[in-house]
Design goal:
282 residues, mainly alpha, 10 helices, 0% strand
Length: 282
C-alpha cells in the first residue's frame, strides 16, 4: 500500500468516524475508488490502528469536559457511570438481537455468517445513510431545552446506538446525538455523552478487528505452508493512526461548532447526498 493511499484512508476514516456522516460508507467508497481489498490483513491492520487514532482524538478533545461532568464528585461519577453502563447494555441487547434476527431471517441461520457480510451491500448502505440523514434533519428542528441527561434518555440513546452497529451508513454519532436532542438533552451534553459511549464501545471493536487480522493471517499461513509475518504492517499503520488522530481532532472541532451554531441539519443533508454517491459508486 502506498503512503498516499494510507494518508487518504487515515483522513477519511479520522474525519468521518467522528463526524455524523458514517465513516464506513466513506472508507468503503475510498477503497473501491483506489482498488483496495478491505479483507486483506494489511487493510485489517490499518483499520485497527485508524480506529485507535480516532478513539484517542475523542479522549483528548473531551477530556476536560468529561472531568468536569463525570468526575466532579463521587455522586456525579456514580450517576453518570450508571447512565453509561445502562446505555452500553441497551446497545448490546439491541445489537445482539438485530444480529440474531438478521442471521436467522435474512441468512437462514447460515453457519458461516458474519455481520461483515452486510458491509459490502451498497444498497443497504445507501438506505442507512438516508435514515441517518432524515433523523439528523428532524432532530435539528427540535428546539433545544435545558433538560439534563436522564437514565431514561441514556437508555434510549444506547438502544439507537445498537441499531447502528449492523448497518454501515447509519452514523453512530449522528444517531446518538440526534436521539439526545430529540429527547430534550442539551447539545453539549448530548455530544459529550455520545462520544463517551464511543470510547467505551471502541476497544471491543478494535479487539474484534485484531482477531480478524489474526484469523486472516492464520488462514494465509495454512494455505501457503509457512508463517505470515505481519510486523512489516506496523509502521504504515502507525502513520495512519497519527493522521487519523489529527483528522479526528479537526473533525470534532467542526462538529462542535456546527452543533452549537444550529447547523446540525447540514450533516443530514450531506448524508442524503452521500447516499446517492454510494449508489453510483456501488
Amino acid at each position: 500500500m502506498h503512503f498516499l493511499q494510507i494518508l487518504i484512508l487515515a483522513i477519511v476514516q479520522g474525519a468521518a468516524e467522528l463526524l455524523p456522516v458514517s465513516s464506513s460508507a466513506h472508507v468503503i467508497v475510498a477503497e473501491k475508488l483506489m482498488g483496495l481489498d478491505p479483507t486483506t490483513p494489511e487493510m485489517t491492520m490499518l483499520l485497527v490502528m485508524l480506529h485507535t487514532g480516532t478513539m484517542f482524538a475523542a479522549i483528548v478533545y473531551f477530556w476536560k469536559a468529561w472531568v468536569a461532568t463525570y468526575f466532579s464528585s463521587l455522586s456525579a461519577f456514580r450517576t453518570n457511570a450508571l447512565r453509561i453502563v445502562a446505555a452500553t447494555a441497551a446497545t448490546g441487547v439491541v445489537g445482539l438481537a438485530l444480529l440474531f434476527i438478521i442471521k436467522r431471517v435474512v441468512f437462514r441461520n447460515a453457519s458461516g455468517f458474519e455481520i461483515e457480510h452486510l458491509f459490502g451491500n451498497t444498497t443497504l448502505m445507501a438506505v442507512s445513510l438516508i435514515a441517518a440523514g432524515v433523523l439528523i434533519i428532524l432532530a435539528a428542528r427540535i428546539r433545544e431545552r435545558s433538560d439534563d441527561l436522564t437514565l431514561r434518555s441514556s437508555i434510549w440513546i444506547g438502544a439507537v446506538q445498537g441499531l447502528c452497529l449492523p448497518f454501515r451508513g447509519f452514523s453512530r454519532s449522528g444517531a446518538t446525538i440526534s436521539t439526545g436532542l430529540a429527547m430534550g438533552v442539551s447539545r453539549r451534553r448530548a455530544e459529550e455523552f455520545s462520544f463517551a459511549l464511543a470510547v467505551v464501545l471502541t476497544p471491543p471493536v478494535i479487539a474484534k478487528e485484531a482477531w480478524r487480522l489474526y484469523q486472516a493471517a492464520h488462514v494465509q499461513a495454512v494455505d501457503s505452508g509457512h508463517a505470515v509475518n505481519t510486523m512489516h504492517l506496523i509502521g504504515p499503520s502507525l502513520v495512519g493512526m497519527v493522521f487519523s488522530f489529527l483528522a479526528g481532532l479537526l473533525a470534532l472541532r467542526w462538529l462542535s461548532k456546527w452543533l452549537e451554531q444550529g447547523r446540525w441539519h447540514f450533516f443530514g443533508i450531506y448524508c442524503l447526498v452521500a447516499a446517492c454517491v454510494v449508489l453510483a459508486v456501488g
